[in-house]
Amino acid sequence: MDIRFRDTNVETVKTDLLILPVQEKRLEEPAIRALDRRLKGGLRERIQKSKFSGVEGSTLLYSTAGALPARQLLLLGMGNATDSDTWRKAGARGRKEALAIGAQEMALFFAPEREPITAAGALVEGVSLASYQFNKYRSNSTPPIELKQLTLFKPGLKKTAAMEKTLGMVQASIPGVFLARDLINEPPSITTARFLGEQAQRHCRGRGLSVEVWGKKKIEAMKLTGLLAVNRGSHEEPRFIVIRYKPSGKPRKKVALIGKGITFDSGGLSLKPAKSMETMKLDMSGGAAVIGTMSRLPHLGFELDVTGYIPTTDNLPGGNAQKPGDIIRYLNGKTIEVLNTDAEGRLILADALALAAKQKPDYMINLATLTGACVVALGTAVGGLFSNDPSLAERLMRCAEATGERLWQLPLVREYREHLKSSVADMKNIGGSHGGAITAALILQEFVDNIPWAHLDIAGPAFAESDTGICPKGGTGFGVRTLIKFLSTL
Would you say 82 and 113 are in contact if contact means Cβ atoms under 8 Å apart? Predict the structure, then answer.
């Protein structure tokens, strides 16, 4: 998509779809009056008949019938908010309207009241994210009409170097989100551990990137016992994916990104109900986010040493599956008694965290669709954030807010560690009846060696159960934009 900036007014722009953002009850703005004059009062009449007032999410589409160089006019309600997420949603709504009328070009009157650079980035991000579709398994699908050009305009508008940098980062990041969505949306018969490793090798290419995909023998040699235990019920061998990014110069920081890669979660012998399994292909969303993020690093040019770790397998109740009561001894010597085989994500993440900690990174961040308890606490739109480092947590919260990927910090309650005590091992893999998201995070904390660490429980926002403004039903790619934003701040 070609993005252009023009110093012009609303009456002279030639485009398929002219978009005018309108704040609530501000229908006397000069741009609206100017358009109404050219349309001989027809626009004002339509506004009154439709009772359009500019509330957020409202739209009014008007055919100009040749009275303007623009073929169609769209009034886009912005409500009273002026934050970046409002602009992101506005861009997504504009893109969907353009798709509905077959527009290949659209132009938007861009006059934010504050932070124009941030607003422009969010707007373009919304337009881009809303273009995603996953139709490869539909027999009657047709390719969507591509939006070839987006023009932002107003009198006196000029593109600054800072704005160009922001837009460049947005455009470089979006393919990583789409890759993560694609990986999540593939059926679980396709997305095996082997497939995930092949996709990492295929997409994580470019200057500074290298990929290793460890098979079962190497996993055994590296003593990644949690991954081996979860894999025991499967016919598919596990994989452990390591993606390394080395900058051309001396790295400023060293970062480890860890993603849960359970390609399908039946619960193992602690079998889930059938309804709960319907979307369990999403259980590798953390791994997909790490692959998506790592794939974009050569295009973003960060002077950072970044390593992605993705332990991956399915979790099935085969004849050799791990059993409640089994004990796993980990790389760092700690042991876990497995009482519920459906609490398997923490078992494979412990391997990756212990391995990453041995490399002494400056920061470790893991992403996982880890607990239903986090969904109960925060719903499907917000991810949980746990951290042993307040400054890292604060930075991630700011980055998430900037990208519209909402996080909420939950506490690592030390007293809840009592709920994890085992009579035969260092800890159990489940706690009591309450605080399940917290006790799961406390288990992970046992494997990070006091390195600044954050755990993102993305069980809610990783998968959309219905269409949203920026994503159709299915995998969302949640976390990719937040991770890239975080890396850009180091």
Answer: yes
Query: What span, in angstroms and rounded, lies between the C-alpha atoms of 239 and 231?
Result: 10
Q: Please, are residues 18 and 10 in contact by the beta-carbon 8 Å criterion?
A: yes
Looking at residue 114, what is its pLDDT?
85
CB-CB contact of 346 with 444 (8 Å): yes
Structure tokens at 453: 């660490």
- Residue 205 bears catalytic tag: no
User: Other CB atoms closer than 10 Å to residue 155's CB: what's the count?
Assistant: 13
**Residue type for position 198:** E
pLDDT at 118: 94
* 441-464 pLDDT per residue, tens: 999 999 999 999 999 999 999 999
The burial of 414, by beta-carbon neighbours within 10 Å (0-12 exposed, 13-18 middle, 19 or more buried), is given as exposed
**Distance of alpha carbon 391 from alpha carbon 404, whole angstroms:** 20
Q: Which two tokens stand for residue 87?
A: 């602009």
- Which residues, 6 or more positions from 443, have their beta carbon under 8 angstroms from its beta carbon? 336, 346, 350, 420, 427, 429
Q: Which residue positions in the chain have pLDDT lower than 50?
A: none
Residues 449, 452, 456: CA angle, nearest 5 degrees: 105
Q: Which one of 346, 395, 406, 485 is the catalytic residue?
A: 346
**CA 91/CA 308 separation, integer angstroms:** 31
481 classed as catalytic: no
Which residue among 254, 272, 398, 417 is the active-site one? 272
| Beta-carbon count within 10 A of 162 CB | 11
| CB-CB contact of 366 with 456 (8 Å) | yes
Tokens of 233: 């019920």
Torsion of CA 315, 316, 318, 323, to 10 degrees: 60
Whole-angstrom distance, CA of residue 366 vs CA of residue 453:
8
CA 266 to CA 269: how far, in whole Å? 8
| Structure tokens belonging to residue 209 | 């990137």
| Rounded Cα gap, residues 110 and 405, in angstroms | 24
The string of DSSP letters for 428-480 reads ES---SS-HHHHHHHHHHTTSTT--EEEEE-TTTTEESS--SS--SEE--TTH
